[in-house]
Design brief:
alpha/beta, 7-stranded mixed sheet, 6-stranded parallel sheet, 35% helix, disordered C terminus, binds nicotinamide-adenine-dinucleotide
Length: 345
């Protein structure tokens, strides 16, 4: 059976996801689209076989021809679209952030808990990347002993003109916070943010930033964001364990030795670096929804936890203080499968 999906937000990532849903992954068809810019939505729909253009995201969610919703609009719009999808009882894949404040994320958690089973998945695609999965497998195997430190480098060649100072934390490092929680299997407990000597190519931005994060068990994590580094889109990760280390390997399928130099390629942007991860992310989401599971990937709790770290990070950036990260109690719905109470999904 083909899953009929509606996509809200047909900008950069919305179009990329529509391409993969239409031409790469199997089991889904984009039957409806919406964008605040109607011309963009109509242009995108023109490239699809049979997609309805809706005037609002709410109309798309209510459309009986739409089985599941994908939200790719700007962050501040996410809460309303995810809540409307839950109210309609439809599975919803929401690009990061789940919502732009911890309170808004909690509204989503409350609605999903009241619904009684998972419907929401957040677009933290790094969990589907082959290199990150291999890194997690090494950590979980115990081969390098207990993790003591983790280093996470997040480098963008440049960022758009509307990118503000806080975005290095809430738009960029949010991925590092999520993947750290996932790799280490624990919550983050405190954060400090230190601005380095500013990159002259970054205008008024405080770039690069160094974030020093402590996990609940005391693992020390450093997150570096450099968002004007020009040479390419480079994602680094290295775990220091008690008896060994494990790191994401350098990318590039080929290494060239020539003219007394060794070189390989660096991706241009997130679309190229994580192209396969996004494909796996959607293939697994489609399978879960088709199996009636609603969602099995990053949850509303994961979206909430990452957002609380972002909030604490922004406070730390402005105050210079070490800010403690405090989460509410985790609802049983988000316990790992083996920990879930019998009868719940
Ligand atoms: P974009 O600006 O290219 O596209 C966003 C689109 O949403 C625009 O076309 C805009 O008109 C539309 N929009 C805004 N408000 C709307 C509304 N109320 N209803 C319908 N449409 C509306 O931005 P983008 O780069 O595609 O980012 C979109 C989302 O995806 C953001 O939340 C961003 O953080 C996330 N994102 C995730 C990744 C990732 O690696 N997972 C990468 C890039 C972007
Ligand atoms: C963008 O929104 C993403 O999510 C990318 O993965 C990230 O690398 C980039 O910094 C963000 O702006």
């Amino acid at each position: 059976m083909t899953l009929r999906v509606g996509v809200i937000g047909t900008g950069m990532i919305g179009q990329d996801h529509i391409r993969r849903l239409t031409h790469v992954v199997s089991g889904a068809e984009v039957v409806a689209v919406n964008d605040a810019d109607g011309d963009v939505a109509r242009q995108v729909a023109a490239g699809l076989k049979n997609a309805t253009v809706h005037a609002t995201g709410e109309n798309l969610i209510a459309d009986p021809a739409v089985d599941a919703v994908i939200v790719c609009s700007w962050g501040p719009t996410h809460e309303a679209f995810v809540l409307a999808s839950i109210a309609a009882g439809k599975p919803v894949f929401c690009e990061k952030p789940l919502a732009t404040t911890p309170e808004a994320c909690r509204n989503i958690i409350d609605a999903e808990v009241a619904h009684g089973s998972r419907l929401v998945q957040v677009g933290f695609m790094r969990r589907y990347d082959a290199a990150y999965r291999a890194l997690k497998a090494v950590i979980d195997s115990g081969e390098i002993g207990a993790p003591l430190m983790y280093s996470s480098g997040h480098r963008n060649p440049s960022v758009p003109a509307h990118y503000t100072k806080d975005m290095a934390i809430v738009d960029t490092a949010v991925h590092d916070f999520d993947v750290t929680r996932w790799l280490l299997g624990e919550e983050l407990a405190a954060i400090r943010v230190i601005a380095a000597k500013p990159n002259s190519l970054g205008g008024d931005l405080q770039d690069p930033l160094l974030m020093v994060v402590e996990t609940e068990s005391g693992v020390l994590v450093n997150v570096e964001t450099s968002v004007n580094i020009r040479y390419g889109y480079d994602i680094r990760g290295e775990v220091i364990g008690e008896t060994g280390t494990a790191a994401l390997a350098d990318r590039g399928p080929v290494v060239v030795r020539s003219g007394n130099r060794v070189s390989s390629s660096v991706p241009e942007d997130w679309r190229q670096r994580f192209i396969a991860a996004y494909d796996v992310e959607f293939q697994e989401w489609i399978a879960a929804v088709a199996a009636g599971e609603g969602a099995t990937g990053p949850s509303a709790w994961d979206g909430y936890a990452a957002q609380v770290v972002c909030d604490a990070g922004v406070a730390a950036l402005y105050s210079g203080d070490r800010v403690v990260i405090e989460l509410v109690d985790k609802p049983a719905l988000y316990a790992r499968p083996s920990e879930r109470p019998k009868g719940s999904r």
